[in-house]
Structures are given as structure tokens and as C-alpha cells.
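Task card 7
Instruction: Convert sequence to C-alpha cells.
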Amino acid sequence: MYQNADETAVHFNKGNPSSLIESNQFVAIDETNESKDVDDASTALWWLDFFTMAGRKTENQDSLLITTCLPYQCSDAETSSANRPMPHAVSHPPSSAPLLVLMADGVSACQFPKQASRLVVNTIAHKITLGLTELAHSQDETLSISFDDDQVATIIKTAVNKANDILYFPQAYQRVPPLLSTLSGLLCIGDRIHLFHTGDSRIYRVGVDCLTVLSKDHRVPRGQDKGALAAAIGADSQLELQQSVFTLHQNECLAIMTDGVYEHIESTELQFELCSSATDVFQLMTTTHKLPLGLNTSQAVCEQAFTAGSHDNLSMVMLSMNTRSAHFTSINGAKGAGHFDGIDFDNLDTVIHDVNRYQLPTGLEIGDHIDGFTVIGIIARTARSHVYWVQDEDNHDFVLKSPSLDSVADGHYLRDFLKERKIGLSLSKHRRAGESAYNQADPNRLPINPTSNNIGHSVGSGLSESGLLRYYPVPASTTYLYHLTEYIAGESLRDFMDRHAPCDVWQTFDLLTKIGMAVRVMHRNYLLHQDIKPENILLTKSGAVKLIDFGSTSSSILKDSTRPPNGDLHYAAPEYYTDAPKGVHSDLFSIAVIGYELLTGQLPFNTQTLMMPNQILMMPNQILMMPVQPLRQQNVPEASQQALMRALHINTNARYQAIGEFLQDFNPDNKAHSREPEPLIKRNPLLVWHGICFIEFVIILLLLAYFS
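Output:
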């Protein structure tokens, strides 16, 4: 263990094969921004249980680093220097101090595996610390520091690539012995967990009754053995890095272990050990309000793998958050009719400003006033949100949306609500040349267009080509939590479908094109909507399309493999129920479902079918059995039917990967495509294989008859 000027860390890399590292250390983050081992860990933010041993090898080639990774103030010169100490200056709330856990396993086939793993964890920890420092100093120091998921993911990727360069380029250009190492890491910022991984160690999510593998085994199968390592730091100039971000819920733990551990323990036994330990941890924290001492789970699991015959180094880390110290969303009580006070947002990392206490403008009635806006009408009141039509002092029309009182206890919904505003404002900045940047102005000071009879409609219609709902910044002095968006005079696609479905193929193609173009704007900004449904699509009086509700949006770069399906499950792609990658094809699946519903007036699948993609994948033709007869009854061209079938394919690789390609094939006027149907092997693979088998059977019979 060591301490230095720029980080306080627990660093293990023992060369003595007989030395064992004592487990059940605790990292307590206090007001002095230091980490320390404590016996009474009631104030600690994280419970940590770790163990590593050489096992039957002569040296321990694993490196384990655990650090609070706090950002510190430094000048530009200090930031560029890797060795210069950085003085403590930035005030960082203990409850949101980042915790970094790194585990690297040096590849034994190389000459210096131990040095490789140590170099990896040191480099990555240093670069991530510098990156968080720079990100913290880019914010207003008078406000609480917050970290954006995409920005943190970029910092992590840059740090890992730097470590990869350090290991790869000397062996490629200086003829030095190769240095290779696997890596599994967790960067914990509040309850938001950034996972990054390459190699064959594993990261698990542990509940009281379930064990889920979050990491991917980067291996090339080789018969019955475990296969060869397919990715490692230092193996290639382009690193294959798995990244994801997710929320750690209450009563959940995380575990990291090397291949020497999990390969020699049956999966059922491993699940029993980890889940039992997690249950004990949560019970002790609930009853005693203290972090448990003496639970040597990591040591017990490593020794179990050793007894089972493991010949590799054995390392494991298990961690869980102390929710008593984390201070998640709290409710202090209501004040006044229709208002709520006392929402603690300290740990909502999507917050840009200091929003420790806000009031909810619920229960508003026509004629009420809020922040200079007057309520003109009530659009909707649901269990999740309240939506109002409001006007400012200059009669500009807007929509005001706030969470309902019933949702204040749901921290995840509040986080998504805040994220929706941030994404909406970000997308509103991406405008075409010549468009007015209304989103950059105070909505109470928007210029009046004297040539328009409806000012609110002119503000929205002037930017309607983007296809995305325009978000405006709320007044900086507000004490209320709400969104402010443009007012759309029109109806939802659901209302349109209730009146007009089934639609003809040309009208459907026109609507799908407008929807697809709106979704493409999000995809070009590396965002997936993930909740495309008729209720979230508005049709203006001029026939334009507006895509709304960005609360379920996520980054297409930062692939969140643990995120469950959002919204109406009839429109959610089946890969949301599996580990298959999510991407543009996932949003396209939802668009294709809408297209089918427009053409037929009914949905192509029920939710049970969509929730069982693995069973469907076992079918010979590997295609979701979309009912084709309703399409034929509506005289939908064969080419359009084939386009829908491909867009609704169970296999994400067989599905369209671009919205434009789908729209081109769906176009009813695409006669060239109609004259060139898909090969029979794609249209009916089962018939082709049956035909091949029949021909082979006949040949075998003829050969038997000839030689008998």
C-alpha cells in the first residue's frame, strides 16, 4: 500500500508467492478527500472485500489498484506532467467521490507479465485522475461537481488507449519483448457505474438471488478447451474495449475476478457463494447501519478455486455501496397545495447546476402563473408527469412538463427526467445553416414575428425540418423543476392511427420517411431514442413530424448492455431482452412496427413473442413470424413486405443497419427492386436446405445401388 500526492490508493502486486494480502479493507471518503482503512466503517461510502494470491505460480502476475481517484486542482503545466504532484484544492462532496477499481492480469506467455499488469493499472489510474480533474475544473466551482456519462466514457477510453500505446509500440518499433495484460475496471461515480474491460477476467453483478456476467470473454474458441485470448492491452494498435454504464441498485454488489478463479468453480457454486455473501452484507447494513467486518468472501472463493486445482494466480474484488452514506433521493415533505419541497439531487450525476432543492409545479390550473408563464390549458396529467400549455408575457406558446408528486420517490425516473432536458437542449443546438438559434436565448425574450398570426406556431414551424421537439432553457432563477419545449399545434400519431388506420402504402411511406429522418438526427449525434412509439410522435397541422420524449435516450457509443427495455414493449426490439448489441437497428425495429401498424391497423407481434428471442432464434428460418396475410390484403407491394420483414428480423446482423437503406427498399415506387427479388435462400432458407438434403439422399441411394 502506498500514498502519493496525486492519489490515495490501495495498490497490490506482490512478488512473493507465499504472501497473502489481508482482505476486508475499507475505503472511507471523508471531508479531507483522503482514503483510509477504518475499523468502524459506518461512514464509509463503499464496502470493499478483496484478495489476491500467487497460487501455484512462482509469482503473482496480477495487479490490483483501488483508489478514490479524486480530482485535484492543477495548472496546465502540471496537467501535462505525469510526475508532478497536484495540490488538493477542489471541494468534492464525499458522497459523489469517484471510486476506481482496476484489475490487470499479465499474460504468462510474455517475458514480463508482472511489469505489464502493473504498468497498465498505474497508467490508467493516473490518466483517469487527470481527466476527471480537467472535467471538474471546466465547471463552475461554486456549483457541485457533476460528471456526464459520455465525457467520463471518453476519459476512460483515452486512458486505456494510452496504456495500450505504452505496451504495444515499443515491441512493434523497438524490438523489445512483448508486454500484454488483460484489464477489468469499474469507475463508480455515485450510483453510476462505468464498466470497461478487455481480456478474459470477469465482472459480475450480484443480487440476493441472481448472478449476472457483465463482461465479455475475449477469447477465440479452440475445441473443448477455453480457447486463446482474443484481446489484450498491448496486443494490437487498435484495442477491443468493452464499455458500458449502468446504475447500481440497492441490494446489489459487484465482483471482479481473474480467469484463474471462475474457471475452477462451478457456476452454481459461485452463484451461491456470491449471493449468500451479498445477502449477509445487505442484512448487516440494514440492521446495524454499519459496513460488515470479517466477511472474507474473496479469500474464500480464491481458496476454493485453489483447492479445485487452479494453476493460475487468483484475484478477486467484491464491492457494494453503503446507501446510508450515499444520501440518495430523499423526501422531506410537502409544502403548500400542489407543490413539493425537499428533493435531494446530490447524487444525480446528470445534473448540470446545483439542484439540491426544487419545487414541483403540480396541480396548476388555467390562469395560474409560474416564472412569468401563464397556464393556458392542461394537456395531460398522468402518474408520471403533468403537461401544461403556457404562454409568456409576449404571448409566445410553450409546453411546460414537470414530474408528478407520485414520481418523486422514484430516483431513476427523476434522473431520466433531468437527462431528458439535457439531451433536448443539446439536440436543439444542432441546427441547420440559416435557422435561428432560439434555444440559445431566454424563452421570455424571444423576438416577435409580426408577420405571423400565431407566434408559438411560428417558433416551432421555423425549425420543423429537424423533426425533433425543440427544448428551451428554463429561467436561471427558477426554483421549480420542469422542462420547457415548443408548443405543437397538432395531434399524436396514435390519434391519427385510431382514425385513419389502415393507411395506404404511399401515406405510410411518407410518414415513415419523416419519422426516419427525425430519428437519423439523433443517430448522427450518437444517440438512440429507445422509446419510439405512436404516442411519442406528433403530427403538426402542416403535416410535419415531431419526435418527442427523450427520457429513455442513451448513447450509441457507450453501449449500455444492462439497460432494460423502455416504453411500450410492443415496439421494443427483441435484443433488449438479450445480450445482443443495441444500435440503429434497434430504433429501426420500432419504426418498422409502426409501419406495419399503419398498413394493417394491428401490431405484428405480441409482447410474449418479443420477450423470447432466444427461443425464436432456434427456429430454422430464424425470422420472427410476422403475419404477412394482412399486408397482402392491403395490396402492399412485395418489395415493401420484404423490407418490413428484414427490418423486423430477429438477428440484428441480418436487419438493416441504416434507416435510409430501409426506406429505399420500402419505397412502393422502387420497381427495380421489385424486378429483382431476394434469392430463394433468403426468402425461404428451409425450402433450400430441404431440397439440398433430398438431392443428397437421391445421390446416396444411386451410389448404393451402383456399388451393391
